[in-house]
């Protein structure tokens, strides 16, 4: 199981992104390995909003529809509150709240690998799928 981050979703969605080709290669590798991609609803909301803002409504709607192929964990009240507590304790602006929720979810589910282009995942001790490949 591989966690799917906004940074990867955006990179494979935007043909103009400098990491687009690499993101598509990594996605193809995930599919070849038949690995499950899991994310949470906060990542989807963030990614869909980013795509809408930068690429337009049609691309955002396509992403929202395509997201049905991912396993999506819905953040409940308890997970949200725990992420707020951890985020506040961290006290660094560099880590986003969505990333804090991601780290919490990954730990709770025993996920060690992220499909991401966000260095915060490595700094948090997670492996990056396809990095260095």
CATH topology: Rossmann fold
Beta-strand fraction estimate = 5-15%
Name given to the CATH architecture: 3-Layer(aba) Sandwich
Largest sheet: 5 strands, parallel
- In CATH terms, the superfamily is 5'-nuclease
How many β strands by DSSP?
5
pLDDT < 50 runs, ≥5 residues:
none
Radius of gyration (Å):
14 Å
Structural class: alpha/beta
What series of H and E elements makes up the topology?
EHHEHHEHHEHE
For the record, the count of structural domains works out to 1
The CATH top-level class label: Alpha Beta
pLDDT averaged residue by residue: 94
Total number of helical segments?
7
Brief summary of the model shown:
This protein is of the alpha/beta class. Helices cover 59% and strands 11% of the residues.
What does this structure look like?
- The protein has 7 helices and 5 strands.
- By secondary structure, the protein is of the alpha/beta class.
- It has a single domain (2-128), classed as Rossmann fold, CATH 3.40.50.1010.
- Strands 3-2-1-4-5 form a 5-stranded parallel sheet, sandwiched between helices.
- Helix 3 packs antiparallel against helix 4 and helix 5 (77-90) crosses helix 6.
List strands and helices in order, with pairings.
Blueprint: E1 2-4, H1 6-13, H2 20-32, E2 37-40, H3 41-55, H4 57-66, E3 71-73, H5 77-90, H6 97-109, E4 113-115, H7 119-123, E5 127-128
Parallel strand pairs: 1-2, 1-4, 2-3, 4-5
